[in-house]
Amino acid sequence: MVRYGELSTKGKNRMRFINKLKRNIQDVLSIYPAIKVTADRDRGHVFLNGTPYEPVAEALKQIFGIQAFSPVYKLEKNVPALKKAVQDIMIELYHEGLTFKVSSKRSDHNFELDSRELNQELGSSVFEVLPDIKARMKRPDITLKVEIRAEAAYISYEEVKGAGGLPVGTAGRGMLMLSGGIDSPVAGYLALKRGVDIEVVHFASPPYTSPGALKKAQDLTRKLTKFGGKIQFIEVPFTEIQEEIKEKAPEAYLMTLTRRFMMQITDRIREERGGLVIINGESLGQVASQTLESMQAINAVTMTPVIRPVVTMDKLEIIDIAQKIETFNISIQPFEDCCTIFAPDRPKTSPKLKNVEQYEARLDVEGLVARALAGIKVTEISPETTGDAIDELIDDLL
Ligand code: ATP
Ligand code: MG
């Protein structure tokens, strides 16, 4: 059973949010064919239908828009079935010194026992199989919640905290500029957290950049799918532009010019694909591309809002998140991206817009941008099947 997060504050948009969350859960769990997902105004349900609980729980913990979830057993409404179920559950959980209580609720008033009688009956059935267990009314280790509803009976005993945030897609679409570095995947994660449906834009300059660098960007994107489902990956051919800049502009301005092209092309892709914002991994620092002057010169090519989720974070704070979301180890793989290869030794830390525009005028900007756009490749990246999940699935089939 899934409890929604911040959604409750969203008034009449509520059903739109819930349906989006439902589709995201379906998408992330699509590797498990037996699973069914339902969602109504108050809560959602993920029917395991025999799928192992653990990997599904791990996946649910990551999906934005879920505040908490509980494993719940759905049972027939009869006392022997309920007794058997609570006995099985408590035998499974039991260790020496464990305390418990049964807390029943009956919304179906035709059921043969009322909630007090149910507590007693089910409680004593636990003592039949575990004579040494202790009942405790105040803060027991395990509270078995039993609910008798019109359609069925439900038992649960645990609540797992979810990721919070907003369901991915409820805030609209944004284009994430993803390199192979540490920062941009973290920026993407933070945008996803607030409901932005990201599409990834990655600039590749073969043969200067290797297939490994491209795969790295795709692997990073795959890591981001666990928070809300599939992501479109857009690869932009960038070789011609980098060669042109290298040939015609002064060394010190290579970086600024390169970044302006990236920004401009991303903005055109955004426009064509119905995006509202651009997201990047810029962070304010000592590196040339990351001074305020530099940001201004790069940003000058567009009026589109550019969101920089990690702009004020320290490197260590960013790394912390990168490790948590498991992108760090991919990001530090030694595949050079296009910027590293064409990077000048001494880029301008305070590029003047006037100079930038003057150097840019030596290039056929429109032609270069148009050719890059004509060569983009879009692929869909789906949630990964983790090693554990596959093992469990196979175990289950055998
Ligand atoms: P990152 O760790 O994300 O690479 P960084 O700290 O290395 O960031 P820069 O290399 O200056 O910073 O890049 C700034 C931002 O520009 C990146 O975070 C990313 O959003 C974008 N960017 C850089 N290179 C590429 C690329 N090849 N494809 C797409 N976006 C890129
Ligand atoms: Mg980088």
Which tags fit this structure?
five-stranded antiparallel beta sheet, alpha/beta, elongated, binds magnesium ion, 398 residues, six-stranded mixed beta sheet, binds adenosine-5'-triphosphate
Q: Can you put this structure into words, describing what you see?
A:
There is one protein chain. The protein is α/β, with parallel strands linked by helices and 398 residues long. 41% of the residues lie in helices and 20% in strands. It contains 15 helices and 16 strands. It has helices at residues 14-28, 53-60, 79-93, 115-129, 183-193, 211-224, 239-248, 254-272, 292-299, 315-324, 328-331, 338-342, 353-360, 365-374, 387-397, and strands at 2-4, 36-39, 43-47, 66-69, 72-75, 99-106, 134-135, 142-148, 153-156, 160-164, 172-177, 196-204, 231-237, 277-279, 306-307, 377-381. The strands form three sheets. A six-stranded mixed beta sheet has the order 15-14-11-12-13-16, sandwiched between helices. A five-stranded antiparallel beta sheet has the order 2-3-1-4-10, with helices on one face. α3 (79-93) crosses α4 (115-129) and α8 crosses α9. The longest helix has 19 residues, at 254-272. The chain is elongated and about 85 Å long. The two termini are 28 Å apart. The mean pLDDT is 92. The structure holds adenosine-5'-triphosphate and magnesium ion. The site of magnesium ion has 3 residues, from loops.
